[in-house]
Amino acid sequence: xxxxxxxxxxxxxxxxxxxxxxxxxxxxxxxxxxxxxxxxxxxxxxxxxxxxxxxxxxxxxxxxxxxxxxxxxxxxxxxxxxxxxxxxxxxxxxxxxxxxxxxxxxxxxxxxxxxxxxxxxxxxxxxxxxxxxxxxxxxxxxxxxxxxxxxxxxxxxxxxxxxxxxxxxxxxxxxxxxxxxxxxxxxxxxxxxxxxxxxxxxxxxxxxxxxxxxxxxxxxxxxxxxxxxxxxxxxxxxxxxxxxxxxxxxxxxxxxxxxxxxxxxxxxxxxxxxxxxxxxxxxxxxxxxxxxxxxxxxxxxxxxxxxxxxxxxxxxxxxxxxxxxxxxxxxxxxxxxxxxxxxxxxxxxxxxxxxxxxxxxxxxxxxxxxxxxxxxxxxxxxxxxxxxxxxxxxxxxxxxxxxxxxxxxxxxxxxxxxxxxxxxxxxxxxxxxxxxxxxxxxxx
Amino acid sequence: xxxxxxxxxxxxxxxxxxxxxxxxxxxxxxxxxxxxxxxxxxxxxxxxxxxxxxxxxxxxxxxxxxxxxxxxxxxxxxxxxxxxxxxxxxxxxxxxxxxxxxxxxxxxxxxxxxxxxxxxxxxxxxxxxxxxxxxxxxxxxxxxxxxxxxxxxxxxxxxxxxxxxxxxxxxxxxxxxxxxxxxxxxxxxxxxxxxxxxxxxxxxxxxxxxxxxxxxxxxxxxxxxxxxxxxxxxxxxxxxxxxxxxxxxxxxxxxxxxxxxxxxxxxxxxxxxxxxxxxxxxxxxxxxxxxxxxxxxxxxxxxxxxxxxxxxxxxxxxxxxxxxxxxxxxxxxxxxxxxxxxxxxxxxxxxxxxxxxxxxxxxxxxxxxxxxxxxxxxxxxxxxxxxxxxxxxxxxxxxxxxxxxxxxxxxxxxxxxxxxxxxxxxxxxxxxxxxxxxxxxxxx
Lengths: 444, 444
Description:
Chain A is of the alpha+beta class and 444 residues long. Chain A contains 13 helices and 19 strands. The first copy, chain A, has helices at 15-34, 48-51, 86-96, 142-156, 170-179, 185-192, 195-209, 214-224, 233-239, 245-264, 326-335, 359-371, 385-395, and strands at residues 38-39, 45-47, 62-66, 79-81, 104-113, 125-134, 163-169, 227-228, 269-272, 285-291, 301-312, 315-325, 339-341, 349-351, 376-378, 399-402, 411-414, 420-422, 439-441.
């Protein structure tokens, strides 16, 4: 028998941390819905060949097998756990295209699994919260400006440090490289994406190895250095003297993203022309997100525009998506002791029990309080009141209710202050700040 | 490449159905929290030997393997997907006993996976909503009376047919069989559990094969026929003339369960002395649940009391739990077309766009409505208004907002009635019944 112990890479939260996670998920969900995104929940498994479509991710996939699989049962075809929410969403769209209305705005908050070697902030099982807007044939660029506002609103409601969404546009990179006379723009993009890791000298060396001239490499590095909170980056790029129609298109789209963000939440987005999002198949805007003070945890929210989420026959489905790494964000915050819940249970009140024969009466009081939306437990036993108060105290429950004895009325005690007042279960209300556990961060 | 098609046994809901599912889950969660249950979310995987502890379930387990597993990496030890939420909960309690407060009330709403052959109402991936109360060493019987009230409240708030929780107590069966002079009470219990399948004649034959005398078999069948909505079953059992201390204890506990339920929600519980819950390791109260008209879908909510959820050294953790089969319940309701959502998106209002250059102004109106809790989308394009109204109509969105042109004020149109009124985004409110999609059942 294996020892009972945590599994590396499979985070689990204790009850008070779980309350923080729930509050984060509720807030994120609520924001997504305010923007009209519909919820989707896809199965955890996909056919293996669908998961391996992109090739690059094969090492990450968990494959399933029934312990007593029947080789004659076609339903036992190779299945794997999804490693993101984009592949299942693309499959869902193709499978149900006739039943969906386009443009289709959906959010999906689910676990994903990756068989990677666990490391700080890199899990094998984690929760992502994705929004995507997908359309048939064409997708207007204004959605690329809308998505970061949704994420900005979601994060602004959470006790997390200030978020900055770093944006770029693949058209800018592709157009600029082409305009600079570089043939294999994709290869150059991949090298530039490593700038933060290998530095300008490393990039120059790798570009030289690709046959890129020194003057071209200098232009690429100069582009990568451009960064601005407003549309001023357009002029900066212009000064580099490279021109190309795709570059112009990309600059206009990127300026629209930054300007929309500036109007909605000043400082939310920053054009950062070195961002490329590695090997992902983006074709327009790309996003990464830094939280002030948590930069070393990497991008906590990433995504981009893709022209081909899925295709089937003559149908093409372009889209744009952004994904919050919820588990990674929570892992970072818990690791910094930066967020806590005021109690480990939803309970507001414990009804004391003076003797076991009074339990039914205590149950009736609890039922009345619950019917009024007040989470209530009845004491597990008829121990001394001091012990029943400690039962509440240990869990952070703020109130203990004492049913009246010998004709006296009920009283309720705030065990933090010691204040005890007369109360009727059909009328008493706690302050609204006590109704649910308070989730507080050092960053609020 | 595998064909894009549904996978048998892995249900997925369309957006409007998903809204129904969300409403069900919210209501269930809310009820669990009103009773003070804390949420837990455990990882999807457990070590295989933990999953196979009970032996009987080996055929159901999905085993995981990393596509490119490293044989030298101990973290690649055999893992399987959990097939219920009880095994992971027991492991979590042992792993974190020092950090939890007992009695520990937790709920857990998660997917589970079973590699069974898919059939009507039997899925390979499905959502369960579990509540359990677990304590150290001993657990008072009053919790066995409390749990069905929680489930009763959760179901009463949903558009589902009337639920009846059928209850029995293993002590009644065990004590009665012992008192009737039967040696192998366990074996007899297993035979009686098949009563509905094989009938009284089948049971009599199987009992005879076990060496049970005809008179004893008659007593067992007579016990199995007893059923009552109140404590009158105690007298009925008494008339059979069997006496045993464990029987008396079980009858008292069972009477307490039925009486507490009768006080809380008359008709919610029925003592049904044939219920045994097959091979599960229950030691006290056992529960099954029927919904009127949906009996053929089997028990939609089951559980019981166990004296040993987990043990470690000298620590024993008795508990009692009940589990709602959420996916099975939804599958039954969708199969009967018995529940629908009024729209397929959370959106209340679509803001119309007269021309693309007006989009920013439309975005500002949308932001104001959202800040006031009204889910809003902006029209995807500046098509003719008739087309923009159809965009809303197809999704069931009730309102279209028209920004005022040429100095005129904004108006909002209820596209169901055609009523159009002047409105300001900072003040207008839809009727509260329009604020969220309405979920309605033929059973409300």
